Automatic annotation (TrEMBL):
Species name: Planobispora takensis
Single GO molecular function: lead ion binding
Keyword Glycosyltransferase: no
Subunit structure: Homodimer.
PROSITE patterns, A to Z: HTH_ARSR_2
Keywords, sorted A to Z: Cadmium, DNA-binding, Metal-binding, Transcription, Transcription regulation
Protein known as: HTH-type transcriptional regulator CmtR
Function comment: Metal-responsive transcriptional repressor for the cmt operon. Binding of cadmium or lead causes the repressor to dissociate from the DNA.
Amino acid sequence: MLTIASEVEVLARFGRALADPIRCRLLLALREAPAHPSDLAERLGISRTRLSNHLACLRDCGLVVAVPVGRRTRYELADDRLGHALDDLRAAVVAVEGERACAGPAGVASPRLRAE
């Protein structure tokens, strides 16, 4: 059983992963299906280097895993429940405050993310 401090750390890691729009898009893409980095970079329209940095963050947060497939690596969500959690979280946030923009660190409203 997790202690309160452990539960807070787990939620903070999840929040850190969701704090960046590219990481959100990556998680949503991997929710649909596992993918190789080249496919993810093309789908998201970002460089492989930038993608690699975001995948490393998601791995460090424990949300995605790298699976060797021959000479290539495929990425997938670390647990199927994460896909359900993303769906539930998105639905809850939209239901509660779908029209509000969240203020960033300096009180500046962050751009709204479109659902993919």
